[in-house]
Specification:
alpha/beta, 7-stranded mixed sheet, Rossmann fold, 6 helices, 200 residues
């Protein structure tokens, strides 16, 4: 069993961050959140982290000349905090190859669909417009594509008659909170191996 040293990247409400913090608090997850980074100063996730006594850095991405410069600032902050695993929790920025090389095979994301179905930023809306009867959520390793990295685990969520985007999102988010914690616990227990890192 390995205690995971986590850095969590956020942009919004932070419910997946809260699920991770709660799981650590109740002893269901052997991990420490070393640092939370937000690219938005108004993200409620910042308040969630501070309430839990977790260090926070706000790095507004528009203050950096390029994506690479922004990612370099994040890398420096995460390394300073002794972070080993990166957890994306509603982080609405694409990571550069430079960032992924800094934490090879150790960057995780959760996506509100059963990938490879409905990648991108509007997965729940896309599932409804497509007429899907089942959707869900996916935890995957991050690569340099958009929601294309190796899948670790998925959870199915039925689309119910009369669902709109808000009602379906609520059920998917509940599934996300459970699945993310379960995957992190599996990683801590050695049941999930990082994917091979391509050379170069």
């Amino acid at each position: 069993m390995t205690t995971l040293e986590l850095g969590v990247l956020v942009s919004g409400n932070g419910t997946n961050l809260q699920a991770i913090l709660d799981a650590i608090q109740r002893g269901a997850l052997d991990a420490r959140v070393r640092l939370v980074i937000s690219n938005r100063a108004d993200a409620f996730a910042i308040e969630r982290a501070r309430r839990a006594g977790v260090a926070v850095r706000v790095l507004p991405h528009r203050e950096y000349a390029s994506r690479e410069a922004f990612d370099e600032a994040m890398i420096a902050a995460l390394r300073e905090a002794s972070v080993e695993w990166i957890v994306l929790a509603g982080f609405m920025r694409l990571l550069t190859p430079r960032f992924l090389r800094a934490f090879p095979g150790r960057v995780l994301n959760i996506h509100p669909s059963l990938l490879p179905d409905f990648p991108g930023t509007h997965a729940i809306r896309d599932a409804l417009e497509h007429g899907a009867t089942v959707t869900g959520c996916t935890v995957h390793f991050v690569d340099d594509g958009v929601d294309t990295g190796p899948i670790i685990a998925q959870r199915r969520v039925p689309v119910l008659p009369g669902d709109d985007e808000a009602s379906l999102a609520e059920r998917i988010h509940r599934a996300e909170h459970e699945l993310y914690v379960e995957v992190l616990a599996d990683i801590a227990a050695g049941r999930v191996e990082p994917p091979p890192v391509p050379e170069g």
